[in-house]
Amino acid sequence: MADLETEPAVPVDYWYPLPDGRIECTLCPRLCRLRPGQRGLCFVRRRGDKGMELTGYGRSAGFCIDPIEKKPLFHFLPGTPVLSFGTAGCNLACSFCQNHDVTRSREVARMSARADPATIARAANALGAASVAFTYNDPVIFLEYAVDTAFACREAGVRSVAVTAGYISAAPRERFFAPMDAANVDLKAFTEGFYAKRASGSLGPVLDTLRYLVHETQVWTELTTLLIPGANDSPGEIDRLTAWVSAELGPDIPVHFTAFHPDYRMLETPATPPATLQLARHIGLANGLRHVYIGNVSDPARQTTLCTGCGTRLIGRNVYRLTQYVLDADGKCLTCGTQLAGRFSSHPGNWGNRRQPVEIEQFAA
User: Fold this and answer.
1) What fold does the segment set 59-358 form as a domain?
2) Is this structure's pTM higher than 0.70?
3) What does 325-340 look like in DSSP terms, one character per residue?
4) Which tens digit of pLDDT belongs to each residue from 138-157?
């Protein structure tokens, strides 16, 4: 098992030397150029003696079991528990980050839990988790650890979920998503200006990731946009975003519009009004999207999945708890037989709203 500072895992292919003695990291579009000892903005990738190193392989900021709906994934194994974990750092710098204690951490102590991929797969099985989620910070930056864990989970019959902003370059993107079963991609806004000002990134690579996921993989994909008052919540921007999703990704892609709460460097920005969320959903439906949800609030009517054939309430929800389920084992409506887009098992889970911390070390071999 790797130690954070003394036993880094060496990535393959995601850097190259520059004429001036620096190396360029090509994992994500940021293309950090580093001298010996320097870290990228993500914090966990560092220039070492032999090139780029991933520090912290096998270490996490902690593990817990969540409802899959919290990721949020509404059309992937509804009601089931997911073993969730993340590391530290991020390759974006969002001023509104609601996990900033992890994503902006520069303290190795944040990654105190130790577990190799086999241990995580073993824990998921022992705890009855249907899947493992790489979340809390962006798993793109700890690609090698996430990929090894996802393959270990696949061998153990456990699914893998990536909760990501999709800010990754083309070559590593293929490797990263190869063992993943589902992804929720955080589409932060639909303007380059927002990405540049609020996230120190760019929109284009995220759209490329979304096209890749939907058209070139079997990864079940859902999208989330946190609506921030005065920043990305105008009707015009929401109209352009949802029209693009409908045209480029298809009408069956679930879209979650979630409520912002003042946090990190945007403490003076007010919370998202319910009316803004409701309008965003209305615009998305008008643009042909079939499944548009509201999140971070209790709104059962707008968190319910309806049959696109007959309008039957197929899956009722109150935040993360299922209140109704009217699908057969294949995910078809029991009323009219219309297939619901997604990934479903023979019966729904009953995990509910619980959050259960996990001491992962107890599952080590």
Assistant:
1) TIM Barrel (3.20.20)
2) yes
3) E-B-TTSBBTTT-PBP
4) 999 999 999 999 999 999 99
